Amino acid sequence: MSLQGVERSAIATVRAGLSLTPEFRRGLLGTLALAVVATAGKVIVPIAVQQTIDVGLGGPRPDVGYIRSAVIACAVAVLVTAFASYWMNVRLYKATEASLATLRERGFRHVHDLSVLTQNAERRGALVSRVTTDVDQITTFMQSGGLTIIVSTGQVLVASALMLFYSWQLTLLAWACFVPLAFALPRFQRWLSAAYTQVRQRTGDVLAAVSEAVVGAAVIRAYGAEDRTAERLDAAIDANRAAQTRAQRIIATVFPLTEIMAAVAVAGVVLLGVRLGADGDITAGRLVAFLFLITLFIAPLQVATEVLNEAQNAIAGWRRILDVLDTPPDVADPGPSGVETPRGPISVSFQNVGFAYPGGPPVLHDIDVDIPPCSRIAVVGETGSGKTTFAKLLTRLMDPTSGRITVDGYDLREMRFSSLRERIVMVPQDGFLFDGTLADNIRYGKPSATDEEIRRALTELGLADWLENLPAGLDTRVGQRGESLSAGERQLVALARAYLADPDLLLLDEATSAVDPATEVRLARALEGVTRGRTSVTIAHRLSTAEAADEILVFDKGRIAQRGPHALLVAQPGPYADLHANWVAAARS
Ligand SMILES: Nc1ncnc2c1ncn2[C@@H]1O[C@H](COP(=O)(O)OP(=O)(O)OP(=O)(O)O)[C@@H](O)[C@H]1O
């Protein structure tokens, strides 16, 4: 399942992006008004200079009162501009941070709602980067670039209008100087955009290399591959440095170019201005003010390339986030309109169920199974025969491609998630543990559970002695993904968590990893305790589990090839007898 991108123009993307962030739009008018004040304030100084020269100093004697007023006007303008800028930035930062937090939350929630098919292994990293890096790019643009574009456009327009008012001849000359730059800038911008695409790819390579080296540290050490890994990392870092340097060089070229253009424009304006002045077409004050205005006019051009690039990045980021939000959750919670079935003995029925992963061949065919209340079902079969797929359908991590699954007579698709998750709980092979204490992790099954309840649950599962031997008891920290515990101990925590959740149907994916004999005994005891009195479906890798089941479902190439109790199946030729022979042989060796 891929993410569904709707082709949008840049404007439509920005509009759709802004519609997702009402916090930003709400204060935008006020912030823009402040931007207008801040921009308008900048032209007060050239006007005051012109007035001082032409009026204050234009008479036979300097008009000190007038000059004082002009200076005071300037000071007030500078203060007002500074205050307006400050207030504008505060408002902008507050609004963008609030709106981008909302965007992150929405993005994250939506990623969570997408089915396991959309979140398959390759896409997981990309999904994470959409809620992190992509939002960061939008932030950068909204907090600086976006406003720069608005303020700069205003600044160029106001400066141009005043320049035209002072002298249309000098304005035409100044514009003519910037025509070549106006043609060159889009080209620079394209180069810069390509250079930054490279930078992003190289940064991605560095991140991938670093995270692989950290996550796979044990394997790297075991195979003595430190040098190879370091070389790969060095190469990625070097490529990243080269890409960054290339991008910075383009930016560094634009700045002096605009400086040269500005110098040419100033020189041209002075030469022509003096001639116009001699003919009485322009006053000295207007000429000096004009030179101030050219500086205002040029400043936005100097940052234009970078800002346009930021804008492109932000639009790309918005597009990627909108792609995520546009992807409908394919396993949708019916919500309050869904069925809430009462707790108690549960019966499940698979009716003619078939399933194919998107774009793949069918992996389950015509599955017809009735799981009566309080029965113990073992699911066995060769690797790749469809056991995990069967379990995922039963917990509604995905929906069947054909047929239907019912719980107490209701289609699984009609059941509210809250009711379904309460009644059916899955314990995966390596139950994910979060970085926290043992108690936190067990409590995950029932957030309201007290330490006393957790202790009682562990005792009921026959794990009191294990708990006593742990260094800090319930407060023992399990480390990231539970790596401070052994694989067997992690399973014990996962079982205790499920026991506390107290579901009506427990789906277990039995661990295949070898554990020490003491843990093996504990696991068997805990398993017995956790499945007692409730319906259980176990993907079995142990002979003892299959032997203890009321019914065994033998999967073979996506079909149920045999079914029945152990005694019956082991006596007839078929895949179960073969599997049994393998188990027995493995136990002897
Ligand atoms: N996410 C996926 N996308 C595409 N095909 C998949 C996916 N997961 C499993 N399959 C395919 O579906 C088939 C059944 O896989 P499944 O994981 O259900 O088998 P299994 O019996 O649980 O195997 P094992 O005992 O090794 O866990 C296999 O052919 C597998 O390649």
Topology record:
Layout: H1 10-19, H2 22-26, H3 28-42, H4 44-56, H5 64-113, H6 121-131, H7 133-166, H8 168-215, H9 217-222, H10 226-278, H11 284-326, E1 348-356, E2 362-371, E3 376-381, H12 387-394, E4 402-407, E5 410-411, H13 417-423, E6 424-427, H14 438-443, H15 451-460, H16 464-469, H17 487-501, E7 505-509, H18 517-531, E8 535-539, H19 543-548, E9 551-556, E10 559-564, H20 566-570, H21 575-588
Parallel strand pairs: 3-8, 3-9, 6-7, 7-8
Antiparallel strand pairs: 1-2, 1-4, 4-5, 9-10
Helix pairs in contact: 1-11, 3-5, 3-7, 4-5, 4-11, 5-6, 5-7, 7-8, 7-11, 8-10, 8-11, 10-11, 17-18
This protein binds adenosine-5'-triphosphate.
Task: Tag the structure with descriptive keywords.
589 residues; alpha/beta; ABC transporter transmembrane region fold; Rossmann fold; 3 domains; six-stranded mixed sheet; four-stranded antiparallel sheet; 21 helices; 10 strands; 65% helix; elongated; binds adenosine-5'-triphosphate; transmembrane helix
What features would you describe in this structure?
This protein has 589 residues and is of the alpha/beta class. It has 3 domains: 1-166 and 317-330, ABC transporter type 1, transmembrane domain (ABC transporter transmembrane region fold); 168-281; 363-588, Rossmann fold. The chain has 21 helices and 10 strands. The chain has a 6-stranded mixed sheet, sandwiched between helices. It has a 4-stranded antiparallel sheet with strand order 2-1-4-5, with helices on one face. A hairpin with a 2-residue loop joins strand 4 (402-407) and strand 5 (410-411). Helix 4 packs antiparallel against helix 5 and helix 8 packs parallel to helix 11. The longest helix has 53 residues, at 226-278. The mean pLDDT is 85. Bound molecules: adenosine-5'-triphosphate. Residues 120, 357, 360, 363, 381, 383-389 line the site of adenosine-5'-triphosphate. Adenosine-5'-triphosphate is lined by residues 120, 357, 360, 363, 381, 383-389. The chain crosses the membrane at residues 28-49, 70-88, 165-185, 250-272, 284-303. It is a multi-pass membrane protein. InterPro entries: AAA+_ATPase, ABC1_TM_dom, ABC1_TM_sf, ABC_transporter-like_ATP-bd, ABC_transporter-like_CS, P-loop_NTPase, Type_1_exporter. Its main location: membrane.
